[in-house]
Amino acid sequence: MIGIVLCLALTAVIPLLGQTAQEKEAEAFRQKLLGALATSDRHGVARMVRYRLVVDAGGMAVPIVDQATLLKLWDVAFPPEVRCLIEQSAVPRVGSVPAKYAIRVDAGGMFIGDGRIRVDRGADGLKITRIILPPGYGASLAGKPRRVIFRWGKGQIVYAGRLSADNVDVYLVNVRKGELLNALRRVSVEQGALRIVQQSGNRTLAPTGPGASDAQRQWAGPVPETGEYRVEVVRRGAYCDPAVNYQLQISVE
């Protein structure tokens, strides 16, 4: 009886500890790739690609012939949606919570992210050779700064926005010294934060007026100098969490 129990226990433990050498190599590659993406090390990612890389963008093949081309077309090859495919993938393991996408390891390499990213093994190790972009790719890319223009130099405007990945929405507003700049963000504190940055000197300002105690949601106060200021809405949360909708009210008086 004891022997049967021991045998069953070993059967349960061995799959957890018994990753193959290829599976360990696959997970090490994924972790290294994620680390480079998380730190914006584009050159590091480029060294993990075998050229010519082919990117399938909705049925249109985009050839990436070398590292220079990849860096130039970075947002095409590695939009946020591709990083999330990698982040939400893992080699299946008995006893572990399944990842959203199962990594399929074979003799020639592996597939990541529902088969959309192919990594091949060669004399130089594992390298990415093909990427099929998911539907809606590019929707999570950061937008360009928006310039706030009041009809009479002062007034109030309300904007609606949507934040995803690690993006920051930027609104540019010109304010004269001593004028009151007010910004009110309508979204939960857990999902976003607000900050005001003086463009000259790139200095983040602390609020001094009403709402100073709730600076994550509201900023109000006189500006120290005449010039351009950035009203920034910063997303909080994990990179692949759902996008956050917000409203932003900006006024100068």
Provide a compact summary of the structure.
The chain has helices at 2-17, 21-38, 42-46, 67-72, 74-77, 80-87; strands at residues 49-57, 60-64, 89-90, 101-102, 104-106, 109-112, 117-122, 125-132, 146-148, 155-163, 168-175, 180-186, 192-198, 203-205, 218-222, 227-235, 244-252. The protein is an alpha+beta fold.
Topology readout:
Blueprint: H1 2-17, H2 21-38, H3 42-46, E1 49-57, E2 60-64, H4 67-72, H5 74-77, H6 80-87, E3 89-90, E4 101-102, E5 104-106, E6 109-112, E7 117-122, E8 125-132, E9 146-148, E10 155-163, E11 168-175, E12 180-186, E13 192-198, E14 203-205, E15 218-222, E16 227-235, E17 244-252
Parallel strand pairs: 1-8, 3-4, 9-11
Antiparallel strand pairs: 1-2, 5-6, 6-7, 7-8, 10-17, 11-16, 12-15, 12-17, 13-14, 13-16
Structure description:
- The protein has 253 residues and is an alpha+beta fold.
- The chain has 2 domains: 114 residues, Nuclear Transport Factor 2, Chain: A; 107 residues, Jelly Rolls (Sandwich).
- The protein is 23% helix and 39% strand.
- It contains 6 helices and 17 strands.
- The strands form 4 sheets. Strands 2-1-8-7-6-5 form a 6-stranded mixed beta sheet. A 5-stranded mixed beta sheet has the order 9-11-16-13-14, with no helix packed on it. A 4-stranded antiparallel beta sheet has the order 10-17-12-15, with no helix packed on it.
- The radius of gyration is 24 Å and the shape is elongated.
- The N and C termini lie far apart (83 Å).
- The N terminus is likely disordered.
